[in-house]
Design brief:
eight-stranded mixed β-sheet, Glucose Oxidase, domain 1, Enzyme I, Chain A, domain 2, 17 strands, 15% strand, TIM Barrel, alpha/beta
């Protein structure tokens, strides 16, 4: 028996034989060619076949997982049609008389190296996209079979150095019980897809491909981030019991699907979900979501060659509001920049894009982008319970300017005879420390706060959450973070305003008791976390936790907080 630890990317337990998903041998000998036109024809043919395959994978993904995940392959298709990538390959064939394989590899490697060395996490991820699609093209040029996980027809745990998005999209839940990789993190494409498919996954183990052979029996614990190789009979029996308990737990959770969320002492809170597309709403309702606490509208803008029209946006917002049937829907206006870029917008290159020209800063300077979104939202407002929030607000002036534009568009639509709801709440995301510190001033003007902890933590701790060298500083339970959250909640409640949270912290089992005691009104999380959170909250006394909050807020370290909460709730 050997135990390997990595990052738990998708919860659950899987027990099965190992299936090594290995890349094909794509090596070749470089030679010069005499007929550049023929070589360019070979390249075009390989590109066309690859595009056809990616179209099929995209459609399969859209049907089996969802629109948001399928957009990854829209991005891949854009890569294969990008003249800035393809033209240099053909130029190399013409000028250097390089074979198509050489031209493809050398140009792709140049772009991959360039993207890998960028500070922007989103751009670094583009390196993986280019690598994924160009490997596919190279395989077709060499006449080599490209791995097809869709052909797996027995229960297995997939082992790989990394899983590309196209690999993950083809995984069949009936047979693939889990996967483990050498590299990757919780925010990688494969990890996100694993959670969508509800396949247990452990990533970033660094050694799984060297430690495991095909057919080895494995246990994957995606909750703890642990892998057991060659488990003993006792360990197999122990984990099978855990599996059974997990299944029974899921059955118990399902009984609470249509129940409101009350603490043990009868205090009610709201459990909502974070979504990216209208297709995600079914998952929210199936998991007992009481609302949508964050609709990330940037997915409407991504994987395209141009901005979505006002009509396209209106249709998407209307669809979500109608499906939620009167339940609250908090829509975040366009949050682009930082780790999310649009290739058709001329955004400036920045040394630190996370602290740069992004989100509301971009929107206020680009009214031609912002106002159509506001109009689409306002037009859709009559179809449900819409709440609008602005991201990355640092000053009251920014909020006032954004709200002013919204009210101007509302007045214009009313004059045009278009119906607009009079009950739209307007709020902001609290993700910048300055905003949290001045929450008392903001609370007098906003209708609600939604705390975005992912950014609030990294900005407060001055630690890039994507940087492994400082990842130890990404501490959700640090007293500085908890005191900021408490300050925001107190400021809002003093003005009789409500506060939600839409960062990953909202669904965290350690954080939930703390947040309940601090008085958080709305917890917004991934849809699959809602029923476990509801179950947990039913066993917690809000009054008892509130009585402990001063003690928690006075602690010196995150570790002290975690140990205290564990002792309190176990």
């Amino acid at each position: 028996m050997k135990k390997i630890t990595g990052i738990g990317a998708s919860s659950g337990i899987a027990i099965a034989k190992a299936y090594r998903l290995e890349a094909p041998d794509l090596s070749f000998e470089k030679t010069t060619i005499d007929n550049p036109d023929k070589e360019k024809e070979r390249l075009d043919k390989a590109l066309d076949i690859s595009k056809q395959e990616l179209e099929k994978i995209r459609e399969h993904t859209k049907k089996s997982i969802g629109e948001a995940q399928a957009e990854i392959f829209s991005a891949h298709l854009l890569v294969l049609s990008d003249p800035e990538l393809i033209n240099p390959m053909k130029e190399k064939i013409d000028t250097d008389h390089a074979m198509a394989e050489t031209a493809l590899q050398e140009v792709a490697d140049m772009f991959i190296d360039m993207f890998k060395n960028m500070d922007n996490e989103y751009m670094r991820e583009r390196a993986a996209d280019i690598q994924d699609v160009t490997k596919r093209v190279l395989a077709h040029l060499l006449g080599v079979s490209f791995p097809d996980p869709a052909l797996i027809n027995e229960e297995v745990i997939v082992i790989a150095n990394d899983l590309t998005p196209s690999d993950t999209a083809q995984l069949n839940r009936d047979y693939v019980k889990g996967f483990i990789t050498d590299i990757g993190g919780r925010t990688s494409h494969s990890a996100i897809m694993a959670r969508s498919l509800e396949i247990p996954a452990v990533v970033g183990t660094k050694e799984i491909t060297t430690a495991v052979e095909a057919e080895d029996v494995l246990i994957v614990d995606g909750s703890e981030g642990e892998v057991i190789i060659h488990p003993s009979e006792n360990e197999l029996n122990s984990y099978r019991e855990k599996q059974e308990l997990h299944e029974k737990q899921k059955e118990a959770w399902a009984k609470l699907k249509d129940e409101p969320t009350f603490s043990k002492d009868g205090e009610q809170v709201e459990l909502a979900a974070n979504i990216g597309t209208p297709e995600d709403v079914d998952g929210v309702l199936n998991n007992g979501g009481e609302g949508i606490g964050l609709y990330r509208t940037e997915f409407l803008y991504m994987g395209k060659n141009e901005l979505p029209t006002e009509e396209e946006q209106f249709d998407a917002y209307k669809s979500v509001l109608e499906k939620m049937d009167g339940k609250p829907v908090v829509v975040r206006t366009l949050d682009i920049g930082g780790d999310k870029e649009l290739n058709y917008l001329d955004l400036p290159e920045e040394l630190n894009p996370f602290l740069g020209f992004r989100a509301i800063r971009f929107c206020l300077e680009n009214e031609n982008v912002f106002r159509p979104q506001l109009r689409a939202l306002l037009r859709a407002s009559v179809y449900g319970n819409l709440k609008i929030m602005f991201p990355m607000i640092a000053t009251l002036e920014e909020f006032r300017q954004a709200k002013s534009m919204l009210l101007e568009e509302k007045e214009a639509l009313t004059k045009e005879g278009v119906d607009v709801s009079d009950d739209i709440e307007i709020g902001i995301m609290v993700e910048i420390p300055s905003t949290a510190v001045t929450a008392k001033q903001f609370a007098k003007e906003v209708d609600f706060f939604s705390i975005g902890t992912n950014d609030l933590i990294q900005y407060t701790m001055a630690a890039d959450r994507m940087n492994e060298q400082v990842s130890y500083l990404y501490q959700p339970y640090h007293p500085a973070i908890l005191n900021l959250i408490h300050h925001v909640i107190e400021a809002a409640h003093a003005e009789e305003k409500w506060v939600g949270m839409c960062g990953e912290m909202a669904g965290d089992t350690i954080a939930i008791p703390i947040l309940l005691g601090l008085g958080l009104d709305e917890f917004s999380m991934s849809a699959t976390s809602i029923l476990p959170a509801r179950t947990q909250i039913r066993d917690l006394s809000k009054k008892e936790l509130a009585a402990r909050k001063d003690e928690i807020l006075a602690m010196g370290t995150a570790e002290e907080v975690v140990n205290y909460v564990k002792d309190l709730t176990e």
